[in-house]
From TrEMBL:
Organism of derivation: Thalictrum thalictroides
Family annotation (CDD domains): RNase_H_like
Pfam families assigned: RVT_3
Lineage, uppermost ranks: Eukaryota, Viridiplantae, Streptophyta, Embryophyta, Tracheophyta
Record-linked InterPro entries: RNase_H-like, RNase_H-like_dom_plant, RNaseH-like_sf, RNaseH_domain, RNaseH_sf
Name used for this protein in its record: Ribonuclease h domain
Source superkingdom: Eukaryota
GO MF, one example: nucleic acid binding
Domain RNase H type-1: 1-132
Length: 156
């Protein structure tokens, strides 16, 4: 089982966009970190592209049992309902035929900070440029831990 935390980022909506993903194994070890630039896109499209492409990357590495977490409720719901924009419909359909087991769920932004850092780096890249690291890159100081509690505060 491989866990993928994914996030999209856009500097403006639409604006210069990208996505980032952190792949971790069952021991919470970072196996792969990816950042990709998208050119001009909306937040929603960067979230969707990040989820679709990161699952595809995992499958290409032989990781066919995946838990995918994103802080974009809209993107996760669109994929769960197969109501994806036409740009992703063919690739999403092909991915779903290849995957053995996938759990796609939302997570609070506070529990997705490592992917958020990677996504912001992706938004700084040129369109279609991707950088990846086997393991944890030197610029990623820490990742989420299942043994830690992350708080979300709100003003009521």
């Amino acid at each position: 089982m491989m866990k993928i935390n994914v996030d999209g980022a856009s500097r403006g909506n639409p604006g210069k966009a990208g996505w980032g993903a952190i792949f971790r194994n069952s021991r919470n070890e970072v196996c792969l970190t990816v950042c990709k630039g998208m050119g001009i896109a909306s937040n929603f499209m960067s979230e969707l592209q990040g989820i679709v492409e990161s699952i595809d990357m995992g499958l290409a590495r032989g990781w066919d049992s995946l838990v995918v977490e994103s802080d974009s409720k809209a993107a996760v719901q669109a994929l769960q309902k197969n109501e994806v924009p036409w740009q992703f419909s063919t690739s999403w359909r092909k991915i779903m035929q290849r995957v053995k087991e996938t759990l796609l769920e939302t997570i609070w932004r506070e529990g997705n900070f490592a992917a958020d850092i990677a996504a912001k780096r992706g938004a700084g890249l040129l369109d279609t440029i991707m950088t990846s690291w086997e393991g944890r890159p030197p610029w990623l100081d820490r990742v989420e831990s299942p043994d830690e509690v992350y708080f979300r505060f709100s003003n009521m």
